Amino acid sequence: MKLLKPTWVNHNGKPIFSVDIHPDGTKFATGGQGQDSGKVVIWNMSPVLQEDDEKDENVPKMLCQMDNHLACVNCVRWSNSGMYLASGGDDKLIMVWKRATYIGPSTVFGSSGKLANVEQWRCVSILRSHSGDVMDVAWSPHDAWLASCSVDNTVVIWNAVKFPEILATLRGHSGLVKGLTWDPVGKYIASQADDRSLKVWRTLDWQLETSITKPFDECGGTTHVLRLSWSPDGHYLVSAHAMNNSGPTAQIIEREGWKTNMDFVGHRKAVTVVKFNPKIFKKKQKNGSSTKPSCPYCCCAVGSKDRSLSVWLTCLKRPLVVIHELFDKSIMDISWTLNGLGILVCSMDGSVAFLDFSQDELGDPLSEEEKSRIHQSTYGKSLAIMTEAQLSTAVIENPEMLKYQRRQQQQQLDQKSATARETGSTASVAGVVNGESLEDIRKNLLKKQVETRTADGRRRITPLCIAQLDTGDFSTAFFNSIPLSGSLAGTVLTSQSSPQLLPLDSSTPASFGTKPSTESVASARPAGDSVSKDSVNATSTPAASSPSVLTTPSKIEPMKAFDSRFTERSKATPGAPALASVTPTAVERLKEQSLVKELRPRDVLESSSDSDEKVPVTKPSSLSKRKLDLEVETVEKKKKGRPRKDSRLMPMSLSVQSPAALTAEKDAVCLSVPAPALKLPMPGPQRAFTLQVSSDPSMYIEVENEVTAVGGTKLSRLKCSREGKEWETVLTGRILTAAGSCDVVCVACEKRLLSVFSTCGRRLLPPILLPSPVSTLHCTGSYVMALTAAATLSVWDVHRQVVVVKEEPLHSILAGSDMTVSQILLTQHGIPVMNLSDGKAYCFNPSLSAWNLVSDKQDSLAQCADFRSSLPPQDAMLCSGPLAIVQGRASTSSGRQAARLFSVPHAVQREATLAYLESQVAAALTLQSSHEYRHWLLLYARYLVNEGFEYRLREICKDLLGPVHSSTGSQWESTVVGLRKRDLLKELLPVIGQNLRFQRLFTECQEQLDILRDK
Amino acid sequence: MAKVSVLNVAVLENPSPFHSPFRFEISFECNEALADDLEWKIIYVGSAESEEFDQILDSVLVGPVPAGRHMFVFQADAPNPSLIPETDAVGVTVVLITCTYHGQEFIRVGYYVNNEYPSPELRENPPLKPDFSQLQRNILASNPRVTRFHINWDNNTDRLEAIENQDPALGCGFPLSCTPVKGLGLPGCVPGLLPENSMDCI
Question: Is the complex ipTM higher than 0.85?
Fold first, then answer.
């Protein structure tokens, strides 16, 4: 073991609170106190590793420093990909940094040369949520989440794919939370706090798995940090400061049952930080010794307030090494190199130490495959999900496909060159803005800049925008005293000439589209580079037919939007084929926009329906009716401002309970008897009630019973007001319940009579006699649904005067114990949907005359399915419609992300995803929700394409295409839920074209569609 | 974190006659679109001895400022010679460029300015009453002194917090408004007035 204290790593004597080595091992970050702010510094690793580099003046030691934190930085952590750095500090903020590409080192304006930043790291996200100092941050395996903990006693889980979205705030600690660690398999996250507890949280639902307090009961004095760590094999969690027999320890907690039987003993003061080596080791095989395979073991470093460091191997009872008096003050953080042989330790005294081990000392590290095999065998799941074999050698067989691929490349280049307009203008000296060189702009800036006078007579200058911020890939270099001479521009030009333009060249068609996204887009740098080169080239030779020249400023804006999404996508789909993520067509973009618009109403709607679900189901009584009304009203109120279309899909909460449930406790036998006894609650007669049907247009129904007595008979009055227009009518019996839609108003009276009126109050039908007293009425459009107390359901189309569903008993779906109906929905197509208390939802399919299961909240398929890689960019998965309403939010990302990380092997997951997507397509079809059908169908197809399922894809295409040569005997319908199938196929084609493997299918469909078009 | 960072200030037309206007080409970068305008000021320090002789040459609003990189030229008339003490007319003084957002100054760029007679005769025997028409102004453009202050960039959050977040050196009762700094290492420099990124005295 070698020990080194690189004195040049310091914060000018100020404490260093955190250290973290970049995954690629070339640099490391420190965080701590700066002059009068927090400070993050990125250092070069090679001077630490090699003495020659340390002495070499030309090897920079400090790469970048960021003073942006307003107060002390407590933690710095690299993402697993190494692309991002997260820092958290006393200013309650977490900043996420990303490397920006640039030409050369730059300086901060006004600083002297020696402070030059060799690398540019830009803050790309500021995460604000904590109300106190942020003490620790941690990236989940696979970088899906970022967790942070704070002295505000909470842990916040951020969606690392979509900052600054918060997925969960974990509350439960009653003291300052000072350390975090993720389970390497992604199933848990653990936090340790000053409240003398260590808590383990599940990532599936972000709930507490266990709270461990016993080993911490004796803990007294506070440490600045409590950085705990999880072993790379996932078996052990080791806490910071714990006590055993009044001696400070690091408690070992076993994953199996969270047992706390072992600890690391020996430090004289509290343990501040524990850090497991990322590698799993096995005994070094000595020549000639027995080849008996030894058990793999882990290695762990423990740092303490007593200023000493100990390194342990889980196979040894004693520490491998203990170094006393390593620092003058407490150890604050430890970081291992990725190869597991080096370790950086930082201290409150402001210095850093590096320890270098040899393999003889630690053992042979297992390879990543072996490690994931251990995960696989222990947890049935490894994080190393295999990516599809690359298709880089595929040959494009037909010109159409070639054309298509080329078009896509073209599009990409266009996109990129547009970005180049932004980045190139600054990143290269020869950059241009709107076709004008910066040099020209500078010459004329004074003349050109817009100056106005404000109302109070002051001068106001509109600054000239010279670059947009998007990818963060530009440099400050240009601005800092680089002479703007033509000769320099020239050299840049020549040095960055054409090789990058090769993809444009027809001789190399295939290479471009098949690059994995991680390479081509995940790091925006190569893209940015090639882009700027393109643009440089383009500007120098404007006559060239290069498509990358973009001279209209207006084009910059959409490109920017594209680009941000672009990077987001690439983060979400590491390893997916680039084309899948890179080529949203204009159509899709439009679609997204419309989806975003539609998203809002749905949100509102959902929140209301959610709240309905939470309302406990009450006993059937006259009260329930009033309650129902109240609920309907609250729902309505929340829906204000919602487009009218949606109001037809209004979900109604219903307090319905089968009597079986009521008697369940008394008589268990009764349960098994299939339910002739099934009875739904009936609304009791009320003196008067009011019902708001919709808020836009505002429509109320008022009912007054027993108002006018004519010769001893009592009449009931029904009053309806719609946008100020009112009508009234009278009925003979007492009105029990009412419902309305934009097209009809219906009321149920005593003696099982149901009357239906038009929006103007005209009676449409003679009263319908229901088979039993009414329980609930519901209208959507011209459809009227009546649920009777005998648990039968009927739906009529009153305009066409036909029955849609005839007295369908609910017994089949309400069978079982204490099942209740929690929500009823009637779609615009008159399809009734019942949400049950057990999370299942059924719709009645009139053509099959059967109940279909359309949603199940406990569905494990939904939990396992992971099709994020196939999602169209942005949040298009939030697709509104009856299916979305029925399924609620349960099926959105967080659960899915959790599943992605730990549930099942990849192959099973693939099947689950397919099954889930298929059921979604089928459900949307059954609900006749064309919009959702299209959404899920496209998603399904995209998933099939991404995963390479040819047969199913072919079947879909065949069905959508139909017979090309019309034959009379054909059963083929040209439309599905109102959508033209062939139009759908046209939409699918670009998706199919993204995978070269399907080029024949693509060609077939394309050709046949062409034939059809020509006919 | 500061939403606006100044990337560069280029001094245009330097050196120039005393009476010609100041011209600075300012490039800055903005992380997030700003709701309100930035206010830039050029302050000419007439005398190192007293703030009394400071002249605000001009102040200008700059906006709207979307996220991105921007530049503009800030031009302001030369200082009024009659407000400059005769003894301070020739020699080294300071010109300051400050920028405020919501009335809070977040950056101050100072340049040394040397006013001298270009002709050797006048330099040898300067007139008793300074001849401003003969004076040449030379701004030491290569050596800007930049001071950055933490301010509250958000409207909604507590103003107190911003003050709390300022560096301690400023805490000593030094107002944030554009009180000119007598400093930059000149005689009369109040120690500790140039916090954060300021350089050591030249």
Answer: no
pLDDT of A621 over the 70 cut = no
Tell if the CB–CB gap between B72 and A464 is shorter than 8 Å: yes
Question: Kind and range of the H or E element at A912?
Answer: helix A906-926
Q: Taking a C-beta distance cutoff of 8 angstroms, is the pair A819, A835 a contact? A: no
CA distances (Å), origin A484, targets A431, A490, A492, A494: 11, 11, 12, 16
Angle at A753 between CA A747 and CA A756, to 5 degrees: 40
Q: Confidence band (pLDDT; 50, 70, 90) for B60?
A: very high
Comparing CA positions, the residue from A986, A952, A871 lying closest to residue A580 is A871
Strand, helix or coil at A634? helix
CB-closest option in A108, A442, A468 to B25: A442
Interchain CB contact of A131 with B (< 8 Å): no
Look at residue A406 and give its three-state secondary structure: helix
Question: Is A426 near chain B, with CB under 8 Å?
Answer: yes
Rounded Cα gap, residues A986 and A848, in angstroms: 30
Chain-chain contact of B68 with A449 (C-beta, under 8 angstroms): no
- Contact between B67 and A469 using a beta-carbon 8 Å cutoff: yes
Residue B86 has pLDDT above 50, yes or no: yes
Using CB atoms within 10 Å of the CB of residue A390, give its burial: 0 to 12 exposed, 13 to 18 middle, 19+ buried: exposed
The pLDDT assigned to A394 comes to: 52
DSSP string, A859-890: -HHHHH---GGGSPSTTTT---SHHHHHHGGG
CA dihedral A633, A637, A639, A645 (to 10 degrees): 60
Compare all CA atoms of chain A with the CA of B26 and give the residue at the minimum distance: A463
Give the span between the Cα atoms of A787 and A804, in whole angstroms. 14
How many helices (DSSP H) and strands (DSSP E) are in chain B?
3, 10
Rounded Cα distance between A534 and A505, Å, is 13
pLDDT band at A641 (very low <50, low <70, confident <90, very high): very low
Q: pLDDT above 70 covers what percent of chain A?
A: 66
Average pLDDT over every residue of A403-417 = 70
- Alpha helical stretches, state H, A457-577: 486-495, 517, 524-540, 556-572
A360-380 as b/e: b if 16+ CB within 10 A: eebbbbbeeeebbebbbeebe
Q: Are A945 and A898 in contact (CB under 8 A)?
A: no
Please name the residues in contact with A45: beta carbons below 8 A apart, sequence gap of 6 or more.
A21, A22, A25, A26, A27, A28
pLDDT tens digits for A534-558? 443 433 333 333 343 333 333 333 3
Confidence of residue A462 (pLDDT cuts 50, 70, 90): confident
**H-run or E-run covering A935:** helix A930-947
Q: List beta partners, residue A181.
A: A190
- All residues of chain A having their beta carbon less than 8 Å from the beta carbon of residue B169 are 36
Find the closest chain A residue to B109 by CA distance: A110
Question: 10 Å Cβ neighbour count for A316?
Answer: 10
Query: What is the mean predicted confidence (pLDDT) over A852-866?
Result: 73
Q: What is the pTM of this model?
A: 0.50
Tell me the three state secondary structure of residue B154.
coil
- Whose CA is closest to A569, among A613, A531, A619, A517? A517
Write A963-968 long-range contacts (CB < 8 A, 24+). Answer: A964/A1008, A964/A1011, A964/A1012
What is the C-alpha separation between A296 and A371, in angstroms, rounded? 10
Nearest CA to B22 among B124, B86, B87, B93? B93
Cα–Cα nearest to A261, from A242, A274, A282, A279: A242
In the predicted structure, residue B87 carries a pLDDT above the cut 50: yes
CB contact set of A274 (below 8 Å; sequence gap of 6+): A227, A228, A229, A238, A239, A240, A250, A264, A300, A301, A302, A303, A334
* CB–CB contact A468 B67 (8 Å): yes
